[in-house]
Amino acid sequence: SPHPTHDIVRDDGYSTHQREMIMALRELGHDVIPVIIGGATEDELPVATKTQRPNKAVSAIKSWVPGMVWRTLKDARLMRHDKTIAGPRLRKALENNKVDLVYERSEYFLGQGSAIAAEAGVKHIYEVNAPCVEEWLQFEGPSMFTPKARKIEKIKYQNSDGLCPVSSSLGGVLKKQYGLNKDRIKTITNGINPNAVKVNEVEVDRIRMKLGLKDDQVVVGF
Questions:
Q1: Ranges 62-71, 147-156, 197-206: which has the least confidence
Q2: Torsion angle defined by CA atoms of residues 194, 195, 200 and 201, in that order, rounded to the nearest 10 degrees
Q3: Cα distances (Å, whole numbers) of residue 41 to 93, 106, 107, 192
């Protein structure tokens, strides 16, 4: 995982997803070497991540800088992070271990994984949880590097040996946007670890009664 802050320690969605994928692969008998830039243990988490406190200085600067400029600076920081931190960490892991496959969580503006794996002669797969550029545009807005971001996405996906989107519709979007062969796309839908789910039948009955639900009516909470 090349993202600078996406760890596998906390209970956030991305953390849980990564932990469960690692455990699932290990249960299938694979040896997994986690290269998690955002932190694989509590000790590796940045102070800001542990405290969840916003940086007041950064917030003050952000309030003064035009949105387009701020987003461009953020993209430039991600580009530098990919080249100086994430990329070298992956390269070192491939040099120090006998690796058969790199399974990477695809992230916005971070695109060195498939190229580094190819250099090392190692197969590479991207797990894709969203159309990264469109998601970033929706939540953050455009930057001067948005065209470059689209180019990075196209090159990294075309260089990878396969993609695992979390839905068939996302797979269709990726195929259309980046000219990918459908044979290289294998959907792995989001799900749960049933062993981690504890059902309180008394609470279920109470909720059914409160909502006026019959025994044959099903409610899915997300």
A1: 62-71
A2: 60
A3: 17, 21, 20, 22
- Structural tokens at position 210: 């409160």
End-to-end CA distance of the chain: 25
The per-residue pLDDT for 193 is 86
Buried/exposed 181-192: b ≥16 CB within 10 Å, e otherwise: eeebbeeeeeee
Closest C-alpha among 5, 32, 37, 2 to residue 20: 32
| Contacts of 158 by beta carbon, 8 Å cutoff, 6+ apart | 178, 179, 180
**DSSP reduced 3-state for 78:** helix
Structural contact between residues 1 and 9, judged by C-beta atoms closer than 8 angstroms: no
Joined together, the tokens standing for residue 172 give: 């269709």
Tokens of 29: 């008998």
For residue 199, report the phi and psi dihedrals to the nearest 5 degrees.
-100, 125
Alpha-carbon torsion angle 146, 152, 157, 161, nearest 10:
-160
Distance CA 38, CA 18 (A): 12
Q: Compute the average pLDDT of residues 169-196.
A: 91
Identify whether the C-beta of residue 57 lies closer than 8 Å to the C-beta of residue 69.
no
pLDDT of residue 15: 94
Contact (CB, 8 A) for 86 and 114: no
